[in-house]
Amino acid sequence: xxxxxxPARVINxxxxxxxxxxSTTQNxxxxxxxxxxxxxxxxxxSRMDAGGASPANCAGVVTVAASNRSGGRASYSNYGxxxxxxxxxxxxxxxxxxxxxxxxxxxxxxxxxYYQGTSMATPHVAGVAALMLSKTPGLTPDQIESTxxxxxxxxxASCGGCGAGIVDAGRAVGAAVTPPAPPPPTPSGSNExxxxxTLGGANSVTVSGTVMNGNMGSASDSDFFVxxxxxxxxxxxxxxxxxxxxxxxxxxxxxxxxxxxxSENPAGxxxxxxxxxxxxxxxxxxxRVRYYSGGTGATNGRYTLKLSW
Length: 309
Description:
By secondary structure, this protein is of the alpha/beta class. The chain has two domains: about 10-175, Rossmann fold (3-Layer(aba) Sandwich), CATH 3.40.50.200; about 205-309, Sandwich (Jelly Rolls). It contains five helices and 17 strands. The protein has a five-stranded mixed beta sheet with strand order 9-11-16-13-14, with no helix packed on it. It has a four-stranded parallel beta sheet with strand order 1-3-5-6. The longest helix is centred in the middle third of the chain and has 18 residues, at about 120-135. The chain is elongated and about 70 Å long. It starts with 9 loop residues before the first strand and ends with a strand. Mean pLDDT is about 90; it is low at about 180-190.
């Protein structure tokens, strides 16, 4: 399958079971976090220490307990040291109104129903995380977790083992101003340095107007370059191929890996993409040159990429 141009930044896991966090589950969480996704999971509904429930006890997740109408711990909610925050989950006398659809394989009749559980609490936190990212796209999973916890409001009723407090959307979004950490230094200069076929291996370009000399070594080649685009500035990436038969395409991605610009002109024509940083902070922009057809190798695979901002 081709790489997903719009990977998820927030993953809600309203599910769980007993036992330790399995290696397969932990590896999947680690993989998602390495791509900038925050993973929010339910603490569980067994009235037990969530340290014995998975994925609540996995590393790197935001574990959510359920609070009731009075702001205390819901009667069914798991608890314990692995819980990070709580959110409304419903309890006896009042559930969380949820949307339903009667269709099994195709859309059916819409309806509503009241539900209770940490599966209802977890989406509240996932939704707040999404709002935080809409304001500050460069936030890392760790920054999101720490902000959710530091801005949570105090429990108005008893909620032992429910984490830092009840998630507070307004305060969390208002505090989501931490700038993203800069990418690790990578080789820079006028010539591309392999391997640079992934976002993590992107060649760093630090000076506006730099012309990078690249090469499509094979039909599966793809080269990434990264730069830091200041607020309000416009990046223009211009690609030119040495061979008239070469057809390479040009893409620009945001700091979280989402596609924000592309050009796929036919063979013999160059590609140009321009994008603007509308935010009040500097963010990384990744520029990708991808082989489509035509020449490859030291001579026929040559191209130049000019990056200006």
